[in-house]
Every structure is written in C-alpha cells, then in structure tokens.
Design a protein that fits this description.
alpha/beta; eight-stranded parallel sheet; Arginase, Chain A; single chain; 40% helix; 8 strands; 390 residues
C-alpha cells in the first residue's frame, strides 16, 4: 500500500553525539518530531524506523580501511596519530563510543528513505538524521563521519539506475557530495551557501563546475555574508528552476541544513523562517514536474536547536504532506514541555518578527553581488540554450 510521505525516525539518532558541548546536537531531531506530533501533523502510520547501513553499502563511497578505523575508534582501539590521519579525534569530529554504529544508523535512515521512494511505497520521504555532507571517502570532516547523501546517491545509481539531482541549501558548501560525483554526468549537484571566504569548508566557488564527463553538472552559488531573505530566495529560485530544467532528473535529493538563519551561531547569514517556508515548496514542485513526485529529503546543519531547527524542519514536513498553510502560535504544550530544558526563550510563533535583526547597511551591494553570482553560475546553461536557438 502506497503512502504519500514517510518520516524516518528513531530516538537512536541521538546516539550520534560527540559530547555535551559540541554544536552538533541530534536532540534537534527529537524536538522536531515532538513538535509535529504535538501539532497532530505526524501520525504513527507515517513513521518508519531506520536500519543500519551495511559495510558493503558504506563502501559504495567510503574506503574500507576508513570504515575499519571508525569501528576501532568507537571501541577506543585507534591510536591518536592514526585517528588524525582519518580526520577523527579532531575538535570538529571527536571520537565517541560506538561511533560506527551511530553513524551507520544515520546512513541507514537515508537509505530507508531511498527504498521507500524508489520502490513506490511513498512519493516523498524525510530522514532528518541525515544530511552529513562533509564526509569524504577516507576522512571525517565538519561534524560528518559517513556521508549519507553520497552513499545514498551511489546506492540509487546501482540499485535503481536513476539520474539524481542533489540540492544543498545548508549555509556550508556541500563539498563531500560535490567531490564524490565531480566527474559523473548522471549526478547534478547544486549548492547554495555562504561564501567560503570566511566560512568552512572554504570551497564552493562558481567556477567549480565538474571535471571530465561530469563537467557542467556541478553548480555553486556562494552568497555574500549577511545575505537576507529576498536575495537568498531570488538566487535559490532562479537557479534551481533552470538547473532542474537543464538536468531533468529522475529523483531529487535535498539536503536541508537550516544554518542560514540569523540566529545560527556558526554562520554569518541573515535569513529568517521565511526561506524555510519557500525552500521545500520549490523542491516539491520540481519533484512533481520532473521526477513523478520522487523526493527524498534529509537534514543537515542547524546549530540553534531550540529557536530555529524545530520550526524550520517541521515546515519541511508540513510542505511535504501538503499542510504548509500553518501560521500563528506554536503549540503551547510543546513550548511548556521544552522551555525548562532550553537555555534561551523558545519562539512563540511559527514566523519570525519583522524586526528580528537591525538593518544591514550593505543590503543593496550584497543583493547586486548575489545576482551577479547567479548569472555566472547559470551562464553555461544559458549559453547552451542560445546556441541551440540559433
């Protein structure tokens, strides 16, 4: 029996935990899950438990010696100097007990979403535990041990033979996924992110377009620091519509980091909840226009876990399930349940106030610069169209 949308969830997603002071905190997934259940917008029949990814599935992307190193690290058996060669034991990705199992569960959640969508059991699937886009084949990076999106795309190619459009709206460049498929013409990657001039990982320039047979299938829009809603949405909308029409994918995989918000402590963008209403709307349209509705969505960055992530990710599910007209007050029951745990005052409404932050003095300059960046990013598509029309 087909379900329109499924929500991949387990409390065990929280076992992916570096330490209590680390900014990456999977309690945000539980906060989102609880918000949706309190709202009555997520039903038990829509919830699907994740599975563990197998070593063979992880090895679709990751080196086997790296997988073994992660296992040893989680058992306390990996020497420090060896661990550092794999990006383990750093400030960003400290070692924690059973890290292989916790990481493999996040990958397995994304693979569960893939199988539901591509086997026809659901049109859309959301796994908020995933979105760890900085992981490389043999190295951890940027809070990411295994790269669930990269593994999922390879898995989709091998098991289902599909062309995949990967869309990354995290404030940090989706470097691990881009480099994995940089020479693959059957995977189109699009990342819109804060410029790497001041922000990790420092990549994602407009001129990173792919290589070999994959040249022309990698798109990046590095927006300027302090970019606001209007400019961000204009860039995202214009680019995604043209890229989807150019590539015409079989399935869309979206990474939904929500760290472009003004409150996020790790980035320098000035977005509000407004963009998190619009991001999934356009992805949803693309899925139905080109992919027969096939849309897989994962989580990603988001480090204000109290004020931003639950609202933004809840709006993603609400769009996916055609309940997105919600506005006004958040459920009082949810606020009361979590406020005593939060170090900040929880928001009372779905949307942010108009005066969330002081005016940005460089707004016109930033807007113009971002518009030029979009033109550069889309120039190959537009030039090719012009040649075909001659």
């Amino acid at each position: 029996m087909s379900k329109n949308s499924v929500f991949i969830y387990s409390d065990a997603f929280q076992t992916y935990k570096f330490h209590d002071r680390h900014p990456f905190n999977q309690l945000r997934v539980k906060l989102t899950y609880d918000l949706l259940q309190t709202l009555g917008a997520l039903h038990d029949s829509q919830i699907v438990a994740p599975r563990l990814a197998t070593d063979e599935e992880l090895a679709l992307v990751h080196d086997t010696d790296y997988i073994e190193a992660v296992k040893k690290a989680g058992r306390g058996q990996l020497p420090e100097e060896v661990a550092l060669n794999y990006g383990l034991g750093t400030e960003d990705t400290p070692i924690f007990p059973n890290m292989h199992e916790a990481s493999a569960l996040l990958v397995g959640g994304t693979l569960t979403a893939v199988d539901y969508v591509l086997s026809g059991k659901a049109e859309h699937a959301l796994s908020l535990g995933g979105g760890l886009h900085h992981g490389f084949c043999g190295k951890a990076s940027g809070f990411c041990i295994y790269n669930d999106s990269s593994v999922a795309i390879k898995y989709m190619q091998e098991k289902y033979g599909v062309r995949v459009l990967y869309v990354d709206t995290d404030a940090h460049h989706g470097d691990g996924v881009q480099w994995t498929f940089y020479d693959d013409p059957n995977v189109c990657t699009f990342s819109i992110h804060e410029t790497g001039r001041y922000l990790f990982p420092g990549t994602g320039n407009v001129n990173e377009r792919g290589q070999g047979k994959g040249y022309g299938y990698s798109f990046n829009i590095p927006v300027d620091a302090f970019t606001e809603d209007e400019s961000w949405l204009a860039a995202y909308t214009e680019a995604l519509i043209e890229i989807a029409d150019f590539f015409r994918p079989d399935v869309i995989l979206t990474q939904n980091g929500v760290d472009a918000h003004y409150y996020d402590p790790l980035t320098h963008l000035c977005a509000t909840m407004r963009i998190y209403r619009e991001i999934p709307k356009i992805a949803h349209q693309i899925a139905h226009q080109y992919c027969n509705g096939r849309w897989i969505a994962v989580g990603g960055g988001g480090y204000d876990i109290w004020r931003v992530v639950p609202r933004a990710w809840a709006l993603l599910w609400l769009e996916m399930t055609e309940q997105s007209d919600i506005s006004g007050a958040l459920p009082e029951e949810w606020i009361a349940r979590w406020q005593r745990h939060a170090p900040v005052s929880l928001p009372l409404k779905w949307d942010d106030p108009e005066d969330l932050y002081p005016p940005i003095p460089r707004k016109a300059e930033i807007t113009e610069k971002n518009a030029q960046t979009v033109m550069k990013a889309l120039h190959p598509i537009r030039s090719n169209k012009q040649r075909l029309n001659l």
